[in-house]
Amino acid sequence: GAVVSQHPSRVICKSGTSVKIECRSLDFQATTMFWYRQFPKQSLMLMATSNEGSKATYEQGVEKDKFLINHASLTLSTLTVTSAHPEDSSFYICSADTGYNQPQHFGDGTRLSIL
Amino acid sequence: GESVGLHLPTLSVQEGDNSIINCAYSNSASDYFIWYKQESGKGPQFIIDIRSNMDKRQGQRVTVLLNKTVKHLSLQIAATQPGDSAVYFCAEKGAAGNKLTFGGGTRVLVKP
């Protein structure tokens, strides 16, 4: 149980393109999902908390107009990287919370490469 | 582009030996702790968790120890196998609601 699916797994696109990444909880409902960014050989950095039916909460230093988050249902959150540039190239990972004193379960990440 | 990353601490272990990975946490208000395994190009995978009212919990080939006095967490892997080669992260929950705070990670390399 507690499977999180993330799509696409890899994106390569030109500078200026907007890219949408989907995160789905397959066998459970997730009121809260999270989006992380991970640089090589580093830990996960929380970008934002995605709340079903309400606005996302962004961590300090993360541009909300750059990284648009939509959580329209209890099983789907999307992250759109708008007008992506090479510095946005990274590994983006989503997770879904399963409750108090319960783990977050993670998708397999999206490798974004902006040329 | 992506920044140059720091080198993760690496634990090299002989196949069949036991591994011990350590983690220090900073927030005494954290009440739930998790170990994750991350293989190259994949997301973190849940291994084992422990609540703050416990000091030890065992799973299949893994044991987590929690020392709240010194805010230390460890993961022990018994009879380490090649498939255990990965980066291991500890994470704490509770101080800031349902957010996780991750440790820096340790790379485990299993030598045949």
List the helices and strands and how they pair.
The complex is a heterodimer of chains A (115) and B (112).
Chain A: E1 4-7, E2 10-13, E3 19-25, E4 32-38, E5 44-51, E6 57-58, E7 67-73, E8 76-81, E9 90-97, E10 104-106, E11 110-114
Parallel strand pairs in A: 2-11
Antiparallel strand pairs in A: 1-3, 3-8, 4-5, 4-9, 5-6, 7-8, 9-10, 9-11
Chain B: E1 10-14, E2 19-24, E3 32-38, E4 45-51, E5 56-58, E6 62-67, E7 72-77, E8 86-94, E9 97-102, E10 106-111
Parallel strand pairs in B: 1-10
Antiparallel strand pairs in B: 2-7, 3-4, 3-8, 5-6, 6-7, 8-9, 8-10
Q: What's the short version?
A:
The complex is a heterodimer of chains A (115) and B (112). With 115 residues, chain A is mainly β.
What class would the helix/strand composition of chain A place it in? mainly beta
Radius of gyration of chain B: 14 Å
Radius of gyration of chain A: 13 Å
Task: Please provide the ordered H/E string of secondary-structure elements of chain A.
Answer: EEEEEEEEEEE
Biggest chain pair interface: A-B, 30 and 30 residues
Mean pLDDT of chain A: 94
Give the overall silhouette of chain B.
Answer: globular
Query: Number of DSSP helices of chain A?
Result: 0
Shape of chain A: globular
Low-confidence stretches of chain B: 1-5
Query: How helical, in percent, are the residues of chain A?
Result: under 10%
Number of strands of chain A: 11
Beta-strand share of residues of chain B: over 45%
Helical residue percent of chain B?
Answer: under 10%
Write a structural description.
- Helices cover 0% and strands 53% of the residues of chain A.
- With 115 residues, chain A is mostly beta strands.
- In chain A, the strands form two sheets. In chain A, strands 2, 4, 5, 6, 9, 10 and 11 form a seven-stranded mixed beta sheet that branches. Chain A has a four-stranded antiparallel beta sheet with strand order 1-3-8-7, with no helix packed on it.
- In chain A, strand 4 (32-38) and strand 5 form a beta hairpin.
- Chain A starts with a strand and ends with a strand.
- Chain B has no helices and ten strands.
- In chain B, the strands form two sheets. In chain B, strands 1, 3, 4, 8, 9 and 10 form a six-stranded mixed beta sheet that branches.
- In chain B, a hairpin with a 3-residue loop joins strand 5 and strand 6 (62-67).
- The termini of chain B are far apart.
- Classes of the chains: A mainly beta (115), B mainly beta (112).
